[in-house]
Amino acid sequence: MGKNGVSPHCEDNQIHESLVRQVQASLLDGLTATRLAEVFAALSDPSRVRLLAALAEAELCVHDLAAVLGMSQSAVSHQLRLLRALHLVRYRKEGRTVFYALDDEHIRDLLERGLEHIRHQTPSPSIAEERPHA
Q: Where's the HTH arsR-type domain (predicted)?
């Protein structure tokens, strides 16, 4: 927002053709944008973020995840199913026990970058706190 509470905007209607072409040449295609949006949508749920954060600390089975997060085993399993489908977590079997882990270091990097982003900002109310009450 600008000084007077209005979003800044261009004063003229000039299109910068060379810049537009340059950006269009490197713009994400629709499928890639959709897949990335699905990953961010998965990360929009606090329970899933906490689940991924737990798996960033250690490989855990469903029972351990449920205990760590204070969730039911069925709720954890439901979240894991979605995260597996998006290749955010993987599993391995050891006898009758199934252990879950982050799929790769990219997932850890996503979490760390997100935490860096929110921690460097000036403390402000959450979006939910900014909404007017009905």
A: 28-122
pTM score, two decimals? 0.78
Determine whether 20 is exposed, middle or buried from the number of CB atoms within 10 Å of its CB (0-12, 13-18, 19+): exposed
Q: Which two tokens stand for residue 25?
A: 């040449």
Tell me whether strands 60-61 and 97-102 are parallel, antiparallel or unpaired: antiparallel
Q: Would you tell me how many other CB atoms lie within 10 Å of the CB of residue 29?
A: 7
Closest CA to 79 of 105, 57, 60: 60
Beta-bridge partner residues of 100: 60, 91
DSSP 8-state assignment for residue 125: -
What architecture is domain 28-119? Orthogonal Bundle (1.10)
Contacts of 80 (CB under 8 A, 6+ apart): 51, 62, 65, 89, 91, 100
**Average pLDDT per 10 consecutive residues for the chain, totaling 134 residues:** 68 89 95 95 96 98 98 98 97 97 96 93 60 47
